[in-house]
Predict the structure.
Amino acid sequence: METRGISRAVIGRLPRYYRYLGDLIDEGIERISSNDLSKKMHVTASQIRQDLNNFGGFGQQGYGYNVRFLRTEIGRILGLDKSHNMIIIGAGNLGQALANYASFEKNGFLMKGIFDVRPELDGMMIRGVPVRMMSELETFLAENEIDIAALAIPKARAVEVSEILVNNGIHAIWNFAHTDLRLPKDVVVESVHLSDSLMKLSYNITCHKNGEKKGAGV
Amino acid sequence: METRGISRAVIGRLPRYYRYLGDLIDEGIERISSNDLSKKMHVTASQIRQDLNNFGGFGQQGYGYNVRFLRTEIGRILGLDKSHNMIIIGAGNLGQALANYASFEKNGFLMKGIFDVRPELDGMMIRGVPVRMMSELETFLAENEIDIAALAIPKARAVEVSEILVNNGIHAIWNFAHTDLRLPKDVVVESVHLSDSLMKLSYNITCHKNGEKKGAGV
């Protein structure tokens, strides 16, 4: 499937480029060739050149890439040049962990609200943001411009809550519930199924114990 | 890359089959045809038949799959028929969230230890397990049989700590640090890069705001 003529596969790789380029800046490196970047990222230089050519290719033959410029451009493509308002549904352990991830804010993801059904959590402050009750959700969404909702609730309520979110204008859901969400085409869902990734690890351990070299993980 | 003649792609899909079959059991469904399963999972029936044929195919023509049997078999293939001892490095928000995920234990992932460098956390109990200091890690690994280490620490220390783990017999790392780990071939790493997934969501929001139908997320 194509987006702006850019394949999903390429888009899926951009955050990794963005991360490595950030590390290079931290190391004070201003220019890098596709060959050196390829050694760092363990992907072929031709893949890197192909990927980055999707965006006009920021490299100059023989000069390599301007690290800061390239990172800024990729950030712009990923929409990181704008800030995104986020709410978190579920103030349990995972919801609180997400709410406390200050590093998301560095990339412009701003935690504007956190919601739960448990009265004992009502008003609890997390990094300056009070936990609100789910009964306040629709009013909150009407009064605030929210781009992203993170779902950190049990799967039993995930579908119902995701529909409430969509009906109240949310178009992007970061789903941690252990279930798949079926939502309208114009709603984007990015799921993080922690148990699934743990099971892949388990499969590989089993292979390893059976004396195999390498399994499906990584 | 092949493992036991089973492609990574198939292995990567098994946890999802396992999850759906578990839901079917909860719904009291004992048998299901590949067609009905395909409607539920939104994958083609032929893909389902191909995937499950890797394991000899548990379906009987015309009778469909025995849900409980199939789930048990897939669980066995994933190594979920055995329990796995896990430790968590980092007792911050994410580490504590992982430590509190009782649902992992249902699948046989047992949290045996949690480690941190912050003295103020020393001895704090999380679901019956005390937070230990990193200085105790090597002794702990020598005295306990640990299969999996979850890394819930900042990337600055992730490489160093992962090497300590590997040097002390850990062969499976569940990496939440925002960096890639380069470890020996016989060590399996499953990385969960939360920021990367958030960036894909951001890309899709940007596409959506630019009036596009669908982006790269899910």
Residues 1 and 8 of chain B are 6 Å apart (CA to CA). The first strand of chain B starts at residue 2 and ends at 3. Chain B touches chain A through 71 residues (CB under 8 Å). Chain B has nine helices and eleven strands.
